[in-house]
Amino acid sequence: MLIYAVCGAGIGTSVLLKSNAERALSMLGIEAEVRAVSIEEARGADKMAQVVLATPEILDQLSGIPAEVIAINNIFDLGELGEKLKATLS
User: Fold this and answer.
1) How many CB atoms are located within 10 Å of the residue 76 CB?
2) What is the CA angle 56-59-63, rounded to 5?
3) Is CATH 3.40.50.2000 correct for 2-89?
4) What is the SS3 assignment for the chain?
5) Tens-place pLDDT, residues 32-52
6) Between the CA atoms of 58, 61, 66 and 68, what dihedral angle is there, to the nearest 10 degrees?
7) Which of 5, 6, 45, 87 lies at a 20 to 30 A Cα distance from 74?
8) Other CB atoms within 10 A of residue 81 CB
9) Alpha-carbon torsion, ordered 74, 79, 41, 50, to 10 deg
10) With helix as H, strand as E and coil as C, how does 54-77 read?
11) Burial degree of 18 (CB within 10 A; 0-12, 13-18, 19+)
């Protein structure tokens, strides 16, 4: 499974989100590849992720992509990440 952690440039929020998503997935016992990418990379990817994690501020820029887009309100909240990933991947 491929998961994108997305932010505007792919180098700030997405890197933090990627790291915390990997921790949440590990706690859930779910194996997945998580990549930190920019909005443009997420929209134009050759290999589209099954799941996209993003903050609410950029969701409108991700509309129309063929993936499940999950809004993460607090990228540091492993509980929120875990709950939303579990609900989506179960």
Assistant:
1) 10
2) 160
3) no
4) CEEEEEECCCCCHHHHHHHHHHHHHHHHCCCCEEEEEEHHHHHCCCCCCCEEEECHHHHHHHCCCCCEEEECCCCCCHHHHHHHHHHHHC
5) 999 999 999 998 867 789 999
6) 20
7) 45
8) 24
9) -140
10) ECHHHHHHHCCCCCEEEECCCCCC
11) buried
Q: Count of residues for the chain?
A: 90
For residue 55, what are its two tokens?
């903050």
What pLDDT digit, counting tens, does each position of 41-83 carry? 998 867 789 999 999 999 999 988 989 999 999 999 999 999 9
Token pair 């492993």 is found at 78
> In the numeric block, which tokens belong to residue 2?
């491929």
